[in-house]
């Protein structure tokens, strides 16, 4: 018997804004909201009814959704203990970096040093994530 990763929950001062940012990054859509934007769930554009999606979850790992939940406090001034590694699939890393900064990401220094193959960024609320190498056809870097 095993479990599946169904969703990832992130605390947010402004769940709608953070959900919109991550929708732009990942190409996700909003699944729904609770209250007056107190919680917002986003995920891959669903292509099947809930029953089929649940059957797929039981069968094999799937891409998780994300839930942003309103909290009163902002991110603490410390490196995240958990962060996302994202990878461009149809552009090179430089083009994706430009797209992500246009969406509101900022470059941050968490002590990674110079000459890394990845770029450390923060979302609009300061949560760090890494932009890794591209998986686009014809583009390869370590």
Automatic annotation (TrEMBL):
Residues 4-134 form the VOC domain. PROSITE patterns: VOC. InterPro entries: Glyas_Bleomycin-R_OHBP_Dase, Glyoxalase_6, VOC_core. It holds the Pfam family Glyoxalase_6. CDD domains: VOC. This is Catechol 2,3-dioxygenase-like lactoylglutathione lyase family enzyme. It comes from Saccharothrix longispora.
């Amino acid at each position: 018997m095993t479990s599946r990763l169904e969703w990832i929950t992130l605390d947010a001062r402004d769940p709608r804004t953070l959900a919109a940012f991550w929708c732009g990054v990942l190409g996700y859509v909003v699944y729904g909201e609770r209250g007056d934007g107190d919680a917002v769930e986003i995920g891959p554009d669903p292509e099947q009814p809930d029953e089929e999606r649940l059957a797929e979850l039981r069968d094999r790992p799937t891409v998780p959704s994300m839930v942003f939940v309103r909290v009163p406090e902002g991110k603490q001034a410390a490196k995240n203990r958990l962060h996302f590694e994202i990878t461009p699939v149809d552009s090179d890393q430089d083009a994706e970096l430009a797209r992500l900064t246009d969406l509101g990401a900022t470059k941050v220094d968490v002590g990674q040093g110079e000459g890394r193959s990845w770029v450390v960024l923060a979302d609009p609320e300061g949560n760090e994530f890494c932009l890794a190498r591209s998986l686009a056809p014809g583009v390869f870097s370590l």
